[in-house]
Amino acid sequence: MLVYAAKRFAGLAATLLVATALVFLVLEVIPGDPAQVMLGINAQEDTLAALRSQMGLDRPAWLRYLDWITGFASGDLGTSYTYSVPVADLVAARITVSLPLALLALALSTLIAIPVGVYAASKRGHWQDSGIMALTQVGIAIPNFWFAMLLVFVFAVTLRLVPSGGFPGWEAGIWPALKALMLPAVALALPQAAILARVMRSSLIDALHEDYVRTARAKGLTRTAVLWRHAVRNALIPVLTILGLQFSFLIAGTIIIENVFYLPGLGRLIFQAITQRDLIVVKSVVVLLVASVILVTFLVDLAYALVDPRLRRH
Question: Cα-flanking dihedrals φ and ψ of residue 43, to 5°?
Answer without folding.
Answer: -70, 145
